[in-house]
UniProtKB/TrEMBL annotation:
This is SalK. Pfam families: HTH_67.
Amino acid sequence: MTTLPARAGRRCHYVVNALHSVVYFSPDNEREMSALGITDRSALYFAGRAAALGRVGAGTVTATFHSFSHELVARHVPHIWDVASPEDVLAARLRVADATLRRLLGEEALASAEMAEAAGLALRAAEACERPVRPLYAAHADLPVPHAPHLALWHAATLLREHRGDGHLIALAGSGLDPLEALVSHSATGRGMSTKWLLATRGWSEEELTAARLRLRERGLLDERDALTDAGAALREEIEEETDRLDAAPYEHLGAEGVGRLTELATAFATTLVENGGYPADLRR
């Protein structure tokens, strides 16, 4: 088994994931999905991310997405599949990725040797991802790999994101945190969404978020300022370490040199995405 530097896989994931997640904030997403008849922002997200699963119902989406209110999910699923088929959504999503990366990275970056190299490294890492107990990863792994390097990289980033995400839910299930508590404690780390974005996207009310914070205070995980206590920070790190363990295979397969190089390349691309407005400035807490 390859020995990697501590948290190397986690660091690689963060920057590679930025190449995938940028589509959710892209105006190209709204344009393409609106053309299919899907105009609500929550419906856009559910349709795009769940389409690989096929014509699933609200229960499957709530289970696999974890942090969304079931009432919000059920407002749109399965109705969205009567508006646009999963196949049409998947085709539109690939067009979104293409348009977004072209606009934010530029044609020169898309045609570069570095883009082709990053795509090859990310696809090689994804070879070691595992299907059992990984529903979102497994569904996306059944999709064909796009030919263009920037789309192949986006596809590989999607596989790596969903593989880690499925593992993260396994870790959360053993943590004692419910979905709301997981959201609130993640935001308190500084890496999660701001309260504004939680309220706008996850379907929970301010009262429900406040109740979750109170439960975390009672357990000694948040202080009176809603910052993580030492115990809260330790729990969040335990969750990430368990997620790292469950997500180790792709990065061990790639090896230390490959992980380092993919992290370097993806960091450069992700930095350009951020600098060119790919993500909202107020996304983080």
